[in-house]
Target: Poly(A) RNA polymerase mitochondrial-like central palm domain-containing protein
Amino acid sequence: MKIDTESSKFQRSDMKPKKKLVLRIYGFSPSVNFGDFRTFLENYGPIRFLKSAKGRESVTVQFEKYDHGLRLLNYKTLRFGNDNLTIHESDYKFEVSKRQVIKRIINEFDKHEVPLSFSGEAKMIRDTVELKPENVMKRLEFVARLNAFVRQFFDESLNIEVKAFGSTLTGFGLLDADLDLTFLFERNTPFQAVDVSHLKLKDDPLEVFKKKRIENMEWRCVSIALKAVFLGRLLKQYEEETDEISDVVCIEAARVPIITFKFNHISCDLSFTNILGMRKADLLKLTTEDHPELSNTLFFIRTWARCAGIFKSTERPVGCFSSYAFSILFFCYCQHSKVLGPLENNEPIQGIAEGTKLTYIGGYHGGIKDFVIGFFEFCLNVYKADQVLCPMTAQIIPIKEFQAPAGWYGQGGFRVSDVSNIQDPIETGHNITSSVTKENLERFLDRARDVVEALMNLDGEHGIAKEMFNVLRQRSSRVVSPALEKMQID
Model:
């Protein structure tokens, strides 16, 4: 094992010492033994933690002492066995686990001698664990750089854009929120079939497409699977040229092809013309952005669900609620309780609507505790009927009535069975969709029963959020790490 010291001449003299220095090391082969690598790194000093990324192509490491990490960073390259590794500084603070979220919230509760009002609790929780504006800006700056790179290969008539959406922009993301991206292009030009046999998107060197850029009709005549392969090649080229991203994987065999990768250890998903996804994000953002109380309540409900193990996680990668699905369930309840009205200035057609936000009526009738209890009681009852929760209106309709207009998702529209794997819409019958398993549904309903019981026994309107997290702590052997059993919210 040798160190390449050639680049170590260029010292980072401008770098000022700071509390933490997190390193990202790329270039591992699939057969690497990370135990041996950790032992090797300990020659530079004690390690606080070392974590391998998905795909085992990179690791993130932090030394106990800043100077030890800086010494390794200054080498910039490293040889371990047969692997030629590159070393970079990472500003990402690792995936935030449910245990970490609860611990942070507990620590904030402990700072207050008397219980807070619910509005105070919700704001405190949001301030503690939300994705900060400066981190959102870093993500958007990265997207701008990625756009500049990708546009080199397409004719201007396509007007292509890699656009961010989802929790990064809605304001409902936690510190480790994924970055959702979609690839958009000009579709208003009348379609005309053209021969694309000359386009060797899988094989031709990318320089070919820089010299002869892909035109509008050519791109529109290419299959979506081939589009995914080509964009995957572009992202891998971007990785080689910039070292900003890693672990690029093109999942072309999926029902809707998607490209996954990492940016500073942040999970990124790039989809194609995901108009529905963008509209869903707009529905959350536009409905809540002028109403802080509603926005903070939804943020709290989502954070509680994350900590209760309701959402997709490393431990449960499939069969769980998406955060959006849970959000529209909350919006559905808000309409039921007359806090929200239907879509503004728009009538849904067969479950699909063009409206961008729900009408705000306001006020938690009967008090905030009754409102929160009512949400979980609503969840316990709504799954008893064979119905669908529409993704664009947040309203419940009979499953047999849900069908999009022809042409919206191809010839003949679609039914719930066609879209169950992307959880739009949510079937509220006892089987629900194939995306949410019975086991995970029961876990959610079990947690809901706990909340209803705990809040009914709570005196007054203060300490609601605190009590709900106490319930999670008491069930921590099934929700989060058993170490949480040692934590107490007094």
